[in-house]
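hey can u check if this looks right to u? its 392 residues, i copy pasted from the old doc so theres a chance i mangled smth
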Amino acid sequence: MAMEKANNNADLVKQLEWGINKEAHVPLYDQVKKIIYNKIMDGYWAEGQLIPSERELGQMLGVSRITVIRAFKELTDEGFLKREKGKGTFVTGLNAAGVSGKRIGVVIHQAEFFADSFFSDIVAGIQDIAAKLGFELALLPYADNLSEVKEGFFCIQNALQKKLSGIIITVEEINEDELARLSEHKIPFVVINKELQSLDGDQLPIDWAKGTYELAKHLVKRGHRNLGYLGGLWGKYRSDSAKYSGFHQALAEAGLKLNTDWLVEWEYQRHEGISKALDKLLLGDPRPTAILCCDDHLAAQLIKRCYQRGLKVPADVAIAGVGDLQIANNVYPGITTLHVDRYKLGQDAVLMIKSRLDNYGAQYVHKRSVPYIVVRESTGEKDHLLKSSSGS
């Protein structure tokens, strides 16, 4: 009895070490499959390496041989393993797992799948040029709660399972460890609205710091000395941090005091509690006479809240946004904002993927876009463009 109990405890330790949970609702073969897949992805078992047999792996994991056989079969069918009679099971050449050369993945937030999104025009540009070049597109909706996101395999898993020849990434949360896995398997990628820090790759960053710097200077030139700032999570995302830093720099150069009561961090898609956040800016004494919002939708909500509070825009409060989305020109007064040629960003991304496929070893492209200001009535003037702030 004691020996049987010791063996059971040993099996349990093995299962816990490898992540097997026999109490879970997930089938055992699926758990085993995922473990093997993750071991391949993180390099524990390298390309061409002979992995343990079904019997050996079953003993290591504390599961039956039949369970491992089923996991092996599915991974072999998907191209991650190959069976050689009399020799065993090997990790396959991952680049040979079925890349077609004509399918591009586009990683985009699930929340961005609505009409008036910053990324909708980017996707339109991707679709149009991809169609002309004969590429098929696979949209890859991204959400923080997906298991492959938590494990850091979202991009490579989609690339291999969907047999993608390249990936365009519009999601800032994809970290460079994930991108490095794409590089290791020579899968071309382009990142949009993100600047790589420690990894080489094709990239199309946006100089938000330059844009908000110019936008804040515009407000100062309009005579405003009490400037507020709304939106973004500048302690979490680099793009939001860049927007805030440009605003901060403009105020510092103008010799203006930064009032922390007029700074409100806010997540773009968060609606609960927004009225209270807006009132923090509008009902203070003193209150800012101009507010830079890091998103046009937030700017539109702020305009609505101003009128609910009996404040006129721009007479009492001037408001500026970022993005030049459809809503910026569809509300009254129209929103002064920052414009980026998003359609061209999408086109450029596809062309970069094609160039990389044609010559994988070519020099990486780093092409920065600088937003320019579109002036509308929300800051007290009629429509025109401040071209002096544009760049390439």
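The first helix runs from residue 2 to 18.
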